[in-house]
Amino acid sequence: MEKMIYSSTRSNNEPRTASYVIMNGIAPDGGLYIPNEIPKLEKADVLALSEMSYHERAAKILSMFLTDYTYEELLTAATDSYSEERFKGGAAPISKLGESGKYMLELWHGPTSAFKDMALQIMPRLLSMAIEKSGTDKEALILVATSGDTGKAALEGYADVDRVRISVFYPSDGVSNIQKMQMVTQKGKNVCVSGVKGNFDHCQTAVKQVFSNEEIRNKIAEENLFFSSANSINWGRLAPQIVYYVSSYCDLLKEKEITYGEEVNVCVPTGNFGNILAAYIAKLMGIPFAKLICASNSNKILYDFFETGVYDRRREFYTTISPSMDILISSNLERLLSMVAGNENCEKWMKELFENGIFTVPDEVRKTLSKDFKGFFADEAQTQNTIKRYFDEFGYLIDPHTAVALHATDTYMSETGDTKKTIVVSTASPYKFSGAVLEALGYEIPADDFEALERLQSISGTNIPENLYSLKSAEKRFNAVIEKEEIPDKVLEFSKNKDCGLN
Ligand SMILES: *Cc1c(COP(=O)(O)O)cnc(C)c1O
Predict the structure, then answer these.
(1) Which of 200 and 241 is assigned the larger pLDDT?
(2) Is there a catalytic annotation at residue 283?
(3) Is the pLDDT of residue 161 over 90?
């Protein structure tokens, strides 16, 4: 197979290998790495993939992008990552919602009950192999800014992995109680967790600045460390996400819900734009996806962008019941922009966004984008109504993020009259947000989180995921809540002291 080359979305076009970009995360010019070309899946390939298991599909698709890994390496990594033990009930199963034409792609059967596990179980293995291939004697220091789910999924994936340590920053008031507990109870000798006063964008901006700060990079190099990222700015996060989109189409084929070539829509509850970008790449590979419906909550900056071509972050920030989508800077949009409008334009817009908080794409770019993408949003009441409506109508329990997507799907279908089948991406277990789900169903929210889990279990007749229930007896390890200005010091301290100041 031909070698896949990666380069930055901005001016620096130095060609890099997949293992290099997985090790290094963000490009030195501040851009994100993208492949110079998208490999294609022909009909015969898709039909062959349909007969394979999830981990075989993963190995095949990843091998098309990660060409400096062998197929055997990728198959081993995928087999371990997506085992029945880690993903109870399968890695990315589909639930058909009656004859509604909607198919729920459930991405939350992994060890932290959120879709981030789909990438973050395999990415540590890809990173370990990349470090080995590079021949360096250094260790990776992973920095993560999280709006909730990434933090825990990354901690779970990287804990006690050789030659890696991980420091996670979460907005102290921007995540659910359960999410906070999942993180502050994390076990492992190489992990550090800090709450930050502020919102997710504050965390993400500060972490990005640490990444590109020459002085800090040099200081941690003295400790024999280099920075790497687990956020969806890292290509190692995105590549495994392409897999489940291809796989979902294969499953519909295999179940004879569709025949090859039939177009289906895809609706993705979107925050940082990583998940939906993976759907777009699957489409470019040749999977017959029609519209990619980009669902936002009240932070509807992407909806406004697709409608008007203006990306304006100078707006009120809302804290919602779908906190993993409370985002005003959707980093992965940069990848889309560079793919459709070129690096020069992309760099200019990113500079404008950084300096003025706003950029505008020309009408022709907006029109090109609207061939593939359509934005919708759900406010809080619409999100709650959707949770109740789907539970009443189908007995199907969803979390608030998934509800945003289902509301968007229904709005799209009624506004356009498009009756194509739709894959609706379900990104979290409802148990991860039990308070909000109970309230939407018309119940009071119990003061105690575990009581909320139990109540939801008795109402829905489904089981509380073990990883959430076991938090009840887990020891809280990380109490620090810091100012965002203290993030660089926290990173330097951790580079010197692997136990994160716990002893
Ligand atoms: C991260 C997350 C999202 C948003 O995904 P992006 O790739 O950032 O767009 C949606 N729902 C849940 C539950 C998430 O954890």
Answers:
(1) 241
(2) no
(3) no
